[in-house]
Design goal:
alpha/beta, Rossmann fold, 7-stranded parallel beta sheet
């Protein structure tokens, strides 16, 4: 990882922040990108102070093509190229099919599916140019997907649909870009039960799923949590360090592409 240039979207919090720390601690140069520009800048500051890393924070809206192009241009201007694109920005809204608003469906899809496409598009342009100009390195595009990209998710179809689509993009991009030394893989984490996406008392998924009646018989948020923990053979939710290890693996190995790697504690097992 040393001196490789890594862009992480969604870097201001959650998996994205953890991935930025994981790669910076291994010597990478980081572009921390997020719609929350102040948050991205703060994460970059912490990386510089904690690891002595070279890191910058930039604003990006992954649903906006010009914004994504500007993010990649900033990485090239700052560090002279791009080695790894990690598409981690994501959103989730739960709800039943009959009541879900079209605007919410389009919002979730635009971030989780279209956002990955745009990140891959502009990363690939730079990586191909580097390869054609004579560079011999291997480059990586990584989507932080979800176990919901491998199995359906009740009352969570907008998210699952976009993530299933992300696996399709991963496989298709891998076939197209292999000749340029660009590997494309997806990481499919289980539920980050301790993160704010799940545990926020007002907007977290425990509360959303309780209100939506997704877990039969659940009376409290704690009932919902226990239900999801019971689904995992290893008995706990996914943790940020689990995803960091998986992402480091798919980048460091040189002989695998087009894969969707589950990190689910055995909740999802591939045939």
């Amino acid at each position: 990882m040393k001196d490789r240039t890594v862009v992480v979207t969604g870097a201001a919090s959650g998996f994205g922040e953890g991935l930025a720390h994981g790669f910076a601690s291994r010597g990478a140069r980081l572009v921390c990108a997020d719609v929350n520009e102040a948050g991205a800048a703060e994460v970059a500051r912490v990386l510089r102070e904690t690891y002595g890393a070279s890191a910058v924070g930039v604003a990006v809206d992954v649903t906006d093509e010009a914004s994504v192009e500007a993010m990649v241009d900033r990485a090239v201007d700052e560090y002279g190229g791009l080695d790894v694109m990690i598409s981690c920005a994501g959103v989730l809204k739960a709800g039943g099919v009959e009541d879900f608003e079209k605007k919410d469906f389009e919002f979730v899809t635009s971030v989780n599916y279209t956002g990955f496409f745009l990140c891959a598009k502009y990363a690939a342009r730079v990586m191909k140019r580097q390869r054609v100009s004579g560079a011999t390195g291997i480059y990586d595009i990584v989507q932080i997907n979800s176990k919901s990209g491998l199995v359906g998710s009740k009352a969570n179809f907008a998210y699952a649909g976009g993530k299933f689509g992300g696996v399709g993009l991963t496989q298709s991009f891998a076939l197209e870009l292999a000749e340029y030394g660009i590997k494309v893989n997806a990481i499919c984490p289980g539920n980050l039960l301790d993160g704010p996406l799940w545990s926020d008392p007002e907007k977290g998924l425990f509360r959303q799923y309780l209100d939506a009646g997704k877990v039969k018989g659940a009376k409290t948020v704690e009932d919902v949590r226990k239900h999801y923990e019971s689904l995992v053979p290893l008995g706990r939710g996914c943790r940020i360090e689990d995803v960091v290890r998986a992402a480091v693996y798919v980048v460091e190995q040189e002989y695998e592409t087009g894969q969707a790697v589950p990190v689910t504690g055995g909740q999802v097992m591939l045939a």
